[in-house]
Amino acid sequence: MSDASQDTSPAQDPLVIFTPSGKRGRVPSGTSVLAAARQLGVDLDSVCGGRGVCSKCQVQPSFGDHSKHGITANADALTEFNAVEERYDRVRGLKTGRRLGCQACVTGDVVLDVPPESQVHKQVVRKAATTRHIEIDPATRLYYVEVAEADMHDPSGDWERTEIALKTQFDLDGIALPFALLAPLQKALLDGKNTATLAVHTARAGATKVVGVWPKFAEPNLYGLAVDLGSTTIAAHLTNLVTGEVKASGGVMNPQIRFGEDLMSRVSYAMMNEGGAADMTVAVRDAMNALAAELTAEAGLAVTDIFETVFVMNPVMHHLLLGLDPIPLGQAPFALATSSAMDLEASDIDLNFAPHAQVYILPLIAGHVGADAAAVALSEAPQTVDPLTLIVDVGTNAEIILGNKTRVLACSSPTGPAFEGAQISSGQRAAPGAIERVEIDPVTKEPRFKVIGCDLWSTDSEFAVQTATTGVSGICGSGIIEAVAEMRMAGLLDAGGLIGSAEQTGTPRCRPTGRTHAYLVFDGSADGGPVIEVTQGDIRAIQLAKSALYAGARLLMDEFGTDTVERVVLAGAFGAHISPKHAMVLGMIPDCPLEDVTSAGNAAGTGAQIALLNVAARREVEALVHVITKVETAIEPRFQEHFVAANAIPHATAPFDGLRAIVPLPEPSFNAGGGDGARGRRGRRRG
Ligand code: FES
């Protein structure tokens, strides 16, 4: 950046000030705005190398008195609209006042605004609670080249002349041309009279190749997919690689569920069945192709418009997508085929996108801590903050990260699918009609609830009307967490996790079911609807899941040498819907001021999106995984100890004083000698 005060240019040279960057400096009269921008380090885009073809270099001059900048810009501070700009305006239309930076030349002091669409490194502001913006600097970029005509006296091939054009016009060299693109290049130069637009992909320094060719100046659809490939669901964002705009987002169930609900059952399936791993590989690749087809159709695009895909996933999903044997991941030492980031052709893994579409796979942290955790770390950047931050990405397998500027630790913990509503008697996935919020009156012990798709509480007179189409169908993950926590606060559930009887609790809603009790939340049987209860089995499933989550977090705290954390971030698609208070009453997370418990939405998906749009972020996460200390829960003896202590609600030994100061936690005991059978039971496989 130049500054007028340090500028050694002749004082009579015009002073150019670019906004919003504020970069300023003197340039010789007659310098094009694009050249001035380059000279002053201003971020002004150009695909055509200044030939007046691409219109990416637009600027908005502002004339008049700029006392803030100490200059007056006269109307003649830029050269007049030239023929190239006139033609562009006629054919494509230029917004009033706009100029093409490669055509307009500076002749006097002037202030030039670079609109967002003309900035190479545009910023995408994330809608969710955000710790960072995404600067758009993708690996795939378009270049319009004018290639020298073939010359009999200086024989060189089409590609060699194109290479020279890329070198001289864009300073790009060492570019590879895949064989399959040689014929299209030949045709493009013929059709385009020696002009062409190339999509060039730079995976990393020294690995640059052409991935698309079009005749003349072209603005092809250049899209990318950011994929969070989870054990239960596959979520993807279809994103414009030039603007960063998300055109479509969607998810599908991971079809591998039919081979096993959790990760370890899929590894077992691979062990027990010849060709089982290959079947799961085919299933997930087919699902990816189907999801890509669905998202592109929704956006009015074609799958061949997808030039790049970024995957984040846990180690088992990683191996199954890539066609690698997942069996070594089932037992110590949990050896990965590779933990490094990977650059592949989409066709290497049977993805039917653009013919030379590229794939980037985020690095894995360890045998049980995957690229999904790496993506969460990329998105949440715990290594950049002072407060000791615990990030839990709640899913079938929880990814847990603890750290601050001094150190970052990570582990994964096998919570199982209970938090997603599976293994719960009235459980269901989050969908309209599912109970997602629950409150229980501590005096009357009467519940009220909300279902997805309706903002009213069930006690509202309009509730039945507004839920007439969906009905009340079941209880989803956030609903069961609230229900169990509310039961604990209302004295219906003791610290050991036992539901009291009607006599013990004073409400007929606590009904006997065999030797245990269940709490009736909703009885729709009179209208043919469901009876929704929280059973003793449900409580046990939630206890197992939350104990695994807490024990993982506690292990990291041990390793860090702390008994407290200063911030908790709940991540994961489901994490966004968890009420911090209820999560803490349940003892899913350690005691921490409630105002410091926040939700980050799908942080792994955001990490994928960041890596899709910004190549520097790929290098960042590749470096980050090397400084994250992995803690392996499966072989750590203290995990079992922490798991057992975490079985109580909220916890057997941790005081949770902060929580007790703000919520009632009555201490009834409903253990009439029957024992609860859950203490000391690990009972959960990884998955
Ligand atoms: S740089 Fe392409 S039109 Fe100006």
Question: For the largest beta sheet, what order do the strands appear in spatially?
Answer: 16-15-14-17-19-18
Structural class: alpha/beta
Q: Fraction of residues in helices?
A: 25-40%
Number of helices: 17
Number of strands: 31
Could you say which small molecules are bound to this protein?
A: FE2/S2 (inorganic) cluster
Q: What does the overall shape look like?
A: elongated
How big is the Rg? 30 Å
Unreliable spans: 1-7, 125-131, 673-687
* Strand composition percent: 15-25%
**Main pleated sheet:** 6 strands, mixed
Mean pLDDT: 89
* Separation of the first and last Cα atoms: 52 Å
Descriptive notes:
It is a single chain. The chain has 17 helices and 31 strands. The chain is α/β, with parallel strands linked by helices and 687 residues long. Helix 10 (477-489) crosses helix 13 and helix 14 (603-613) packs across helix 15 (615-627). A hairpin with a 4-residue loop joins strand 20 and strand 21. The protein has a six-stranded mixed beta sheet, with helices on both faces. Bound molecules: FE2/S2 (inorganic) cluster. Residues 34, 46-48, 50-57, 100-102 line the site of FE2/S2 (inorganic) cluster.
Write the layout of secondary structure elements.
Elements: E1 15-19, E2 24-26, H1 33-39, E3 58-62, E4 64-66, E5 71-73, H2 83-91, E6 99-100, E7 110-113, E8 123-124, E9 134-135, E10 140-146, H3 158-170, E11 175-176, H4 182-191, E12 195-204, E13 207-215, E14 223-229, E15 233-240, E16 246-253, H5 263-272, H6 276-298, E17 306-313, H7 315-322, E18 342-345, E19 358-361, H8 371-380, E20 389-393, E21 398-403, E22 408-413, E23 434-440, E24 447-451, H9 463-466, E25 474-475, H10 477-489, H11 502-505, E26 510-513, E27 516-523, E28 531-534, H12 536-560, E29 567-571, H13 580-586, E30 597-601, H14 603-613, H15 615-627, E31 628-630, H16 637-645, H17 657-662
Parallel strand pairs: 1-7, 11-13, 14-17, 17-19, 20-29, 22-31, 23-25, 29-30
Antiparallel strand pairs: 1-2, 3-6, 3-7, 4-5, 8-9, 10-12, 12-13, 14-15, 15-16, 18-19, 20-21, 21-22, 23-24, 26-27, 27-28
Helix pairs in contact: 5-6, 8-14, 8-15, 10-13, 12-16, 14-15
The structure holds FE2/S2 (inorganic) cluster.
FE2/S2 (inorganic) cluster is lined by residues 34, 46-48, 50-57, 100-102.
